[in-house]
Amino acid sequence: MMNTSTSPFYPIIASLDVSSKMMDGPSGTMLTTECIDEAIRFRRIMARIARELGSGKGKGSNDWWFGMWQPDTVRDPGTGKTVPFADAHHELLRDEPSAWVLHPGDAWHGFDSLEDGYCMLDPIKVTVITPGVAPDGSLDVWGIPAAIVVKFLDTRGIINEKSGDYIILFLFSMGITKGKWGTLVSELFEFKRHYDENSPLDEIFPDLEQRYPGRYGKMTLPELVAEMHTFMRENGQGILLEKAYGLLPEPAISFADAYKHLVKGEVEQVPVGKMGGRIVATGVVPYPPGIPLLLPGERTGSTDEPVLQYLLALQNFDARFPGFSHDTHGVECVNGEYRIFCIKEDL
User: Fold this and answer.
1) What is the pLDDT of residues 100-130, one digit of tens each?
2) Closest CA to 191 of 225, 219, 153, 154
């Protein structure tokens, strides 16, 4: 309760009252159904475009498009027939919950040993997949990192919710119309055009040319894409991320004790490369996935273990590609070096 107050904040109270009234009765059903309808329309359009253009067959080809994290096929419980997602009736996708269930063994979701009926995909949480990831989760020889697509969309005023190495998440909420998601589709086509036509970076990202002339000068979009994708394959940050989050760090002291050390100034900034076995004073939360990697009072593990190796991989990426840096809460980048507050050892 350290950062809360018993004092009412009247704008929030008023907003909650208005929202409750909006959701009351048939109007609430209409508004929420409209969100789902628009998300489904976008999903089907993207699937149809992918079928027409292909899904990224190799470097330099024009027959590629963005994928979608969604079922490849849908079964109609009424007829028993299974059809491609792009051809499924809109009403089936909107009204039939089984269309969104993650079934065991389905290749599209990538979860092993999943219990049938355990979870569903939320239709309004739309994940666009950039080319480059093989079905087994490894990186293909050719691919387009999401960071470059996200930056391109940002310059067009399209802001995503979150993004990963090769995924971009968009949330369909009230007010999302065909015109808005149609603009997103148009700008994805525009990115594809720039890539296929080998456009120079200064035409697409003039800020990079101005801020880092020695780094990106005279590069083309495909050249940056190829360099970043190759680096990410060799850097192994995707594999390290999975390994790092597959471990449970050792809790050395309690949250409360870690906070006491922090407010008393009994902490010091330590470079990530020298943090082996140290106790962190603050949480370390990489975005994505926005889940704590380390919590206050936990030990980092040794330098050659996945947690610090993953942070070092992110540091190496940020140093190699200025302007595309990761957002990692609890980390301060000083002269290209990641530093994190740790409990002093001589207490």
Assistant:
1) 999 998 889 988 888 988 999 999 999 999 9
2) 153
Q: How many residues comprise the chain? A: 347
Candidates 330, 308, 307, 328; CA nearest to 318 is: 328
- Residue 3's pLDDT band, with cuts at 50, 70 and 90, is low
> How far is Cα 130 from Cα 232, in angstroms, rounded to an integer?
14
238 in Cβ contact with 132 (< 8 Å) = no
Please check whether residue 313 is in contact with residue 328, taking contact to mean a CB–CB distance below 8 angstroms: no
Summarize pLDDT for 238-297 with one digit per residue, the tens: 899 999 999 999 999 999 999 999 999 999 999 999 999 999 999 999 987 889 999 999
- The whole-model pTM stands at 0.89
Q: Which amino acid is at 79?
A: T
Q: 3-class DSSP state for residue 329?
A: strand
Based on DSSP, count helices (H) and strands (E) in the chain, helices before strands.
12, 11
Q: Do 261 and 346 form a contact (C-beta atoms < 8 A)?
A: no
> Before 288, cis peptide (omega within 30)?
yes
Cα dist from 14 to 4, 21, 108, whole Å: 19, 11, 43
